[in-house]
Amino acid sequence: MNEPATNRLVLLSGWGCDARLWQALDGHWPDDLEIMTPDWPGYGERVALDDPAALDALAEAMADSLPHDAIWVGWSLGGLLAGALLDRLPAPRALVLLGMGERFPHPEGVSQAALAQFRKAFRRDPAAIRAHFLRWQLGGEPSPRAAHRRLRGLLGDAAPADKATLNAGLAQLAELDNTARLAAPPCPVHRLAGEADPLLAPAIRERADRLLPEAGHCPIISQPGRLARTLATIATAPTHPLEELALEDTR
Prior knowledge:
Blueprint: E1 7-12, E2 33-36, H1 55-62, E3 71-75, H2 77-84, E4 94-98, H3 112-124, H4 126-137, H5 144-155, H6 163-175, H7 179-183, E5 189-194, H8 202-206, E6 210-212, H9 219-222, H10 224-236
Parallel strand pairs: 1-2, 1-3, 3-4, 4-5, 5-6
């Protein structure tokens, strides 16, 4: 007899954070889910790419970590990169964009000019700018200071990636545009966003399939239980899951 298919989620971190971030969801998953949290090249203990911005090399490096029979969940830059890999790897069961649209810069969110200034400041002082970014992205959480303590407790203060990888990630945030890829995607695409995400323009938040209440850009930290339930629902019914979320989600 064939074994039943496993519901598998692959959780992909964003800029300046490695896979330890997802430990915030430990204890919130149902038993029938398989959770994978691979690091991007250059993060954690994974070897950096010779050219960290090269998408073809990224696809080759991530091929074994992004199985087609899983649902890819990309947070922030992780969502942007996962979307860019849809035409370079076999399509997953579904793609979840968490805190990310088709592209990152937006005149009503983080503008191209603001991102250019951020990149310039990063080249001068990478450690200080990464620390600033971590605080900035937590500005929409119900308790930003508590969220920052929790994030530092998971990640520590040392950079989780080398400067070249981080610099390439900022370039990808500025330049990657998945509009054409996601106009006719090879799999279902679900968009989730915190209702108070300070990095997303209002128009992008309004397009989300589900807004997560009492959350900003990092519901992984501020709403781990609610986020895990939402992702578990997607994993078990990837074609139209969000309609099935019941009122207990407000617990």
